[in-house]
Fold this protein.
Amino acid sequence: MNDTDERFMHGDNRQQSNTGTGGTQGSDKAQQNKEQAQQKARETADQARDEALRRADSQKGFVADYVSNFSEAVRSMAMQFKDQDQVSLADYTYRLADKTDTFADRLRDENSESLLKQAQDFSRREPALFIGGMVAGGFLLSRFLKSSNR
């Protein structure tokens, strides 16, 4: 009978001293590898986020110019409503033009991170309005881009 069988039969549950630290070292190494992988994943995510924000900053002036052009078109439509004595439609349309001008100015003046935080806050407060606005904005932007390519 070997030593392990003998201890088991006599109720001795002590481990031998040379096997006690091997398992601990292995779990320490696994924990260290896990922490290193998590750190690397955080660094990669941070780099991707920074790159996305940098690209957004470089493109927001372009988008702001398109929003300003849209605002001018809306203002022109408001003048036509006013000329046709459709005062209430003209008033709503002027307000829309003012809001889009304000939005274009905010795009130019604020950094992308701040705009992203504001969009996240708004989407939490008003999810239906946010989704509707995104759909409408996407539709208008696609129509505008198609017409500008011609």
Q: What stands out?
A: Confidence is low (pLDDT under 50) at residues 14-20. The two ends are 91 Å apart (CA to CA). Residues 33-84 form one domain. The CA atoms of residues 16 and 37 lie 34 Å apart.
